[in-house]
Give the backbone structure.
Amino acid sequence: MRDTESHSLRGAIDAGALHDFRSEFERLDPLASGVLDDPLSPSELRLQLDDGIGEATSATITVRWSVRDDYNVHYSDDTDRDLRWDVHPHDYTDPNGDGHYHPPPNASSDDGEVKASCIRVTEFVLVARAVHQLWRAGYDSGTVDPLNDANNPP
């Protein structure tokens, strides 16, 4: 039902938030290196990871962040596994509120599969810490099971 959802963020992309998200994530994890798609007017940040979760040998976390604090944080890896934490208005039956999680393996947008996001913080540095904590839990356990299974990280 939701495969055509646009995932539009309200407001323009916040370049400062992308820079700060990158700095915080790189500070937390030496496996990460971030690149903005355009240094002067970025639309997204791509964090490259030198390893992935479980059998994955590399991964990317792509971040889009708006001036209205809507965001998409999309994990993908070389096993074709995708998942996403989002905050933006949506038409899903559940969850209530703008924060939601698109589960692996394909970051489904089907109405019955989208879940509430465990990330409740809204400040971009705290969201960077939460995403890092969740990714690290998945990395350390070798499975994507803990990626939305925390109590309001970080």
Notes: The helical segments are 15-28, 124-141. Residues 1-5 have pLDDT under 50 and may be disordered.
